[in-house]
Design a protein that fits this description.
The protein has 98 residues and is α+β, with helices and mostly antiparallel strands. It is 19% helix and 35% strand. A hairpin with a 4-residue loop joins strand 1 (8-11) and strand 2 (16-24). It is globular, with a radius of gyration of 12 Å.
């Protein structure tokens, strides 16, 4: 796996969702991350579950659209979500991918 941060997250049809700015929930280089922080605008970032992302060459892809990610719940993006934030994110992404 190449470096994740600085790569772009794309939708399956090739739309650029944004730049991956952080890997959240990884406790070392050999541990699969839990969340990716993705820059979706000038001052906007959202978390995307790593479980719905696949590596594709120099980019990463997901079944989410750019709008799906932009409309995800706003939570602190540089910390592992927990409690209400985690519940909201999990519910949102389950509903978005149905």
């Amino acid at each position: 796996m190449h470096t994740i941060t600085g790569s772009h997250l794309l939708s399956t049809n090739g739309e650029d969702i944004g730049e991956i700015t952080d890997v959240v929930g990884s406790n070392g280089p050999d541990v699969t991350p839990t969340w990716l922080a993705v820059k979706t605008g000038w001052f906007s970032q959202r978390l995307v579950p790593f479980a719905i992302v696949v590596e594709d060459g120099d980019a990463f892809r997901t079944d989410c659209t750019p709008d799906d990610v932009k409309q995800a719940p706003k939570v602190p993006v540089h910390f592992e979500p927990s409690g209400h934030d985690l519940d909201e994110l999990c519910d949102y992404y389950r509903a978005s991918l149905v």
